[in-house]
Structure formats: C-alpha cells, structure tokens
Specification:
Elements (H helix, E strand, L loop, with lengths): L7 E4 L6 H9 L5 E4 L1 H19 L24 H12 L3 E4 L2 H16 L8 H12 L1 E3 L2 E3 L8 H11 L4 E4 L2 E4 H7 L11 H6 L3 H31 L9 H5 L4 H15 L15 H4 L1 H23 L7 E3 L4 E3 L7 H28 L2 H4 L18 H17 L21 H33 L6 H14 L9 H11 L7
Parallel strand pairs: 1-2
Antiparallel strand pairs: 3-5, 4-6, 6-7, 8-9
Helix pairs in contact: 1-4, 3-6, 4-5, 4-9, 9-11, 9-13, 9-14, 9-17, 9-18, 11-13, 13-14, 14-16, 14-17, 16-17, 17-19, 18-19
Amino acid sequence: MPLPAPRILRLDGRSLTLGDFARVASGSRPPRVTIAASARRRMSAAEKVVLDVLRGDRAVYGVNTGFGRLAEVRIRPDQHRQLQRNLILSHSAGVGPLCTRAEVRGMILLRLNLLAQGHSGVSRRPADRLAFFLNADLCPDVPRHGSVGASGDLAPMAHVALAVIGEGTVRLAGKPMSSRTALRRLRLSPLLLAAREGLALINGVQASTALLALAVADCRRLLESADLTGALSALAMAARPESFDPRLAEVRHHPGQAESARRIARYLRSSGARLTPSSRVQDPYSVRCAAQVHGVGRDSLAVAVGVCECEMNAATDNPLVFAESREILAGGNFHGAPIGHTADHLAAVVTDLASISERRTALLMDPQFNRATPFLVPPHGEGLHSGMMMWQVTAASLVSEMKTLAHPASVDSIPTSMGQEDHVSMSMWAADKLRRIVERWLVVLSIEALGAWRALTIQDRLPRRGPLGELAQSIGKLHGTKLADRMLGPTVEEIGRLLMRDPSEE
C-alpha cells in the first residue's frame, strides 16, 4: 500500500525529489509548501553580501548593471527598483498556447527551491510570494514558446514573475483574471522588487526542468504499463514464455532488461489464464524482444531521473552568491545543456517504445497471431464490422508523428543577444517535444491494451488473477460486453487514464 503523501513540504534547496515535485505540480492533493529554517538562514546571509555590494563602488552583474550585452552599463542606486521591474516587463516575450497548470506550478516550485539554496542574494520576500502562489492555487499564464534555454528560460519565467509584480494574467483556482485582481482577492499587494530580485526570479532553467520532470514522472508510470500491456499482448498471441526467461537477461547484464523480463514473466504466471504457446518456433521481434527494448527505457529513465533531481536542486541563477567567502561569481550555470540532451535521448527511447507497441497492435489485427478474427471483429462479423482496423492506423499515425518530434533539439543552436549568447541549448523545446511524445505514447499503449483485451475476449481466455486480471477486468468495465462496431475513442481515453493512474494518489 503506498505511503500517504506528506501534508507539508519544507524546501531546503537541496533535497527535492521527483516524487515531491510531481505531487506539488500535478497531484490531486498537493502538500502545502514552506521554506525550511536552514534555507532562510542561508538566504539572509547571501542577501547581506549583496547589500554590502550596493553600499560600495564595485560593479556586479545583475545587481547594479544592465543585462546581456548591456552589462557594461552601470545603473544608479535610485534606478535599481525600476531596473528590476523593466527586466520582468521586457523579458515577458513568450508567445503561443499557454503552459499547463502542472507545468507552471512545477516552474514556481523549482524557482522557489532555487531561491531556498541561498545563492541568489535576495530577500525572502520573492520566495514567500512564490510559496503563497502555490498554496493559494494562483497560476500565472505562461506562453509556451520563447525560450532558447540560455540564459535559462528567461521568457517563461518572466511571465511567472509578472504575477509577483501585479502584471499579466493568472488563474486563481482555475478562474482567469488579471494578476492585480487575484492579488486583491488574496489581500496582497504587488511586490516592489529590490536590487537583484527581478533577475533572481527569471534566470535559470526552471521551465525546461519542470517540463522534463513532468515527462519523466509520466514515463516512470508508463514504463510499468508498457510491461503490462506487452504481457497482455503476449498472452493473447500465445507467445513462447522462454523469451522472458531471467537467464537471458542475466547473461546480457542490463538491469532494465532483467526487470522488464521479470515483470512480464510474473504477469503471465499469475494471470490464471491458460498458457498454451502456439506452434511457432519463434515469435516476432516485437513480442520476443519486448524485455530488451522496454529495458532500455528503464535504464534510460534511471539516468533521466538522476539528471532531473540534480537540476531540481541545482543553483542555475547568475551571478551566484557564496556567503561563506563573501564572493559573487558570474558564470554559466543557467545553460540548459543537461536538460536538453536528456530530453532528446529520452524522446528517442520513448518513440522506440511506442514503435514496438504499435507493432504488437499490428500483429493483434492478424488472425495468424491473434488466434481470433481479422481486425478483432466480432466472431462471424467479417465485412459487416471493421473492428479495430482504424485504431491500428491511428497508432501508426501517432508513432510517425513521434518519429518527427524525436529529431533532437539540443544539436541546434542559434545565437542571440548580439552574439553574447552565442551557444544556446534549446532545452525548453527539447522538453516540450518530449511531453508531446509521451502523450502520444500513452495513446499507443492504450490501443494495444484494448486490442489484446479484445483478442482474449474472443478467445474466451481472459486472465482472471494478478495484475493482468485486474487490467482485463478494468478494460472490460470500460468497454462492455458487445464487440460490435461503435466509437471506441472514449474507451481508449479511459484506458489511458487507467494506465496513467498514480497509486500514491489513490
């Protein structure tokens, strides 16, 4: 039984996990977010370093200078607040459809966790305001396009920061309104940003990381579902069980393959269905090599989780304050290369996982393999009924789209800011494409699951026990007993929700 989600999440800037992130960003019962006392102490110490700079004559980027190629321009003390406000307004250059609520909440959480590290050198006011936004379910409107992933995700994060200063539009508990109206309803005033605080709200790759983390969290659930649907198809096609013998994985040494083979074998053994392999000497690769291909997904996902959790707790602001030595260092931690390359790699792997699922669906349409009827039409209904003919076409269409989307974004770079930012990561687009790819993978898996269920229903060999039995029973409730032609779109969508179900949310 899953452990209950914590009611309060205390951010210290160092220990945020992917599970915590997902619960706050997209969970149905997100925990309240607060800032740990240790983080507040670090933030105060770093703020004192910046205040000392403001009292002296030293020029420090982003504190008392302009930005980008304008960093050589010194800003007068009486212009510091206007500089930070202008930064937010000018950088709110996003366009296109809005990011989802989960994506924006993820951005806010990650920016808050960055500030909690105590390397940004700002007061606690911006962090407290972001925490309030999360707990009050205030979600700024953030257009999807406009970031090149260096200097971080400036445009999307500027749209988040707009709400902090009372500009732009937001959703309060899902209702659209102006930021000023929302703040007024919450009895808050727009923040007047002090020196450095505007830059501290937008510099870094929190938008890219949020999209990557949400995609990775979805992949973690769907990899379990891929093994499950693959096992259901193997059962429907009377696959030879030795393909999932653990000894095969032992001599290849990949942990992901071993885990997928173990799971598929266990699902088949515990199903309670008649396991009577066909007379085929060997099964097609999409069945026989399921553990090998799914295993690559598991191994790649483990790497992606590591990158996500590293980035979620990383200081990607610029410049960074080191209170112990009282130094302020300007560098390039805002560059999104780790996110972009990770997203591109996972996009290719997920596309292959969808491809092998679609191939199993294609086999399930063929009586040579489904041991039932062409296209899984009702018995004796050939010609009058088309069964799942077009659903395999839909799966093929989605996989083709995924192949195009899987073209890597991180190999591209287009200089910006008069050449100052002459190598960019395109991490936001890489993570955005991965999100789209994962959405399509879910539908492809749902179609496979429905096809396997229909084949087993026609064969009268539905599994009765174990995870396969539970899946088959759930699909049966969604589909009903009649196999005659009808619109199956709502059923496929419901199966998708079933495959994406998070046990921790139950």
